[in-house]
Amino acid sequence: MDFALNSAAPLTLFIGPEGSGKTTVVRKVASETNSKRLIGTLSHYSVLESTPRAAIFRALGASAPRNNTDLDKATFDATMIRANMQHGLPTLMIDDADEIQSSTLQRLFDICATTQEGLLVKLVLVGREDFDECITHQQIKSFYCPTIELGPMSEEDTSSYVHHRCAVAGFKAMPFTPKALKELFQVSQGNPLILNVACMVALDEARRERQPLIDSDQIKRCCAKEGIQAKTESA
Hints:
Elements: H1 2-6, E1 11-15, H2 22-33, E2 39-42, H3 45-50, H4 52-59, H5 73-87, E3 91-94, H6 102-113, E4 122-127, H7 131-134, H8 138-141, E5 144-149, H9 155-169, H10 178-188, H11 192-209, H12 216-226
Parallel strand pairs: 1-4, 1-5, 2-3, 3-4
Helix pairs in contact: 9-10, 10-11, 10-12, 11-12
């Protein structure tokens, strides 16, 4: 992601399956990078359709109209060029961009990337794993690079993730046995969203039953109640 933000590419796609942690990564990157350069996130698409330049302004932390008035092209372009000279190229990261209409994406790209002065705003579009296949406009497809895919965690990463979350939550000892951790990987296949649900229902049952340790059988039982079934092959 650091490479994408610092590259000359006007558009980067950040893709991955639902629950893989894309939004968490985007927020973390935006938080850590905002002190070094102008970067913002956006997830409200109605404002992009009605007042796209004002929406970009607000996402980047600048003052902009909050009514139905959009910024004119000259004001927007001049401000972005000035920001580029002072802070580096502004970057806009749009979460769940696969939900935006194709015409709105094209308009957004035209605003940010096609001026005589060059690139005004770098775009990072975040979406599901087949998002790149859904972009049909050839002008957009010719510009985006690279495409970054966030895949599932490995079994080792899954175990480390659970250990970390338990430590942050204040557990003095790991509540999951080694076999339970293996079972958690099997049912989640390294997907953080499914993993979180499986851990929470197992922890909740262990709390009610006053059990100090959670074994693999309990993981299977709790996941069966929630309709989470173990998979026999990696996603």
